[in-house]
Amino acid sequence: MKKVTAIYPGSFDPPTNGHLDLIERGSKIFDELVVAILRNPDKDPLFSLGERRRMLEALTAEFHNVRVDTFDGLTVDYAAKMKASALQMALMNRKLQPNLETVFMMPAEQYSYLSSRLVREVAQLGGSIEGLVPQMVEQRLREKLEPAVKLENARKSKTRKRA
Predict the structure, then answer these.
(1) d(Cα 48, Cα 141) in Å, to the nearest integer?
(2) pLDDT tens by residue, 11-28
């Protein structure tokens, strides 16, 4: 039987528990799962490509059939290059390449509302992101955002004093 390689594409900025749920479940379905981080020149990511890659490599180290890679361009072109026969969660790509099987997986119910954008917004506003991202990612978010949050709080404090 032919080995089935699947691509799980995304920006993963930052990786969330929903992403990890899908990675774990995908690792049980496919012979090989490539977590492919898209390098999108139109986005201004919070974490660099290297930071996201290192976080995902650490978070997926326990899954021996999962590897992390980066790419730019069309996902279907990357999938062809990787000789993948399936995409996990990339519905648009089925239209572009009908021969590439598309598997749409919903995250576990407790993560169904979760997105990287939501996590970034909550963290930037100083809200709790506990349980939304792995502890390592939460720590990295706090380190990255703490200077900006302190600066914003200082600005608010000065504005209140003037009023």
Answers:
(1) 12
(2) 999 999 999 999 999 999
> What is the per-residue pLDDT across 45-100, written as a single tens digit (0 to 9) for each?
999 999 999 999 999 999 999 999 999 998 889 999 999 998 886 555 556 566 66
State the Cα–Cα distance between residues 117 and 39, nearest whole angstrom. Answer: 16
Using left for φ > 0, alpha for ψ between -120 and 50, and beta otherwise, residue 32 falls in beta
Q: In this structure, which CATH number among 3.40.50.620, 3.30.300.30, 1.10.10.410, 3.50.50.60 belongs to the domain 5-162?
A: 3.40.50.620
Rounded to an integer, what distance in angstroms lies between the CA atom of residue 12 and that of residue 114?
12
Report the alpha-carbon distance of residue 4 to residue 2 in Å, rounded: 6
Long-range contacts of 92-100 (CB under 8 A, 24+ apart): 100/76
pTM: 0.79
Give every CB contact of residue 37 below 8 A, 6+ residues apart in sequence: 10, 11, 12, 49, 52, 53, 56, 68, 69, 70, 71
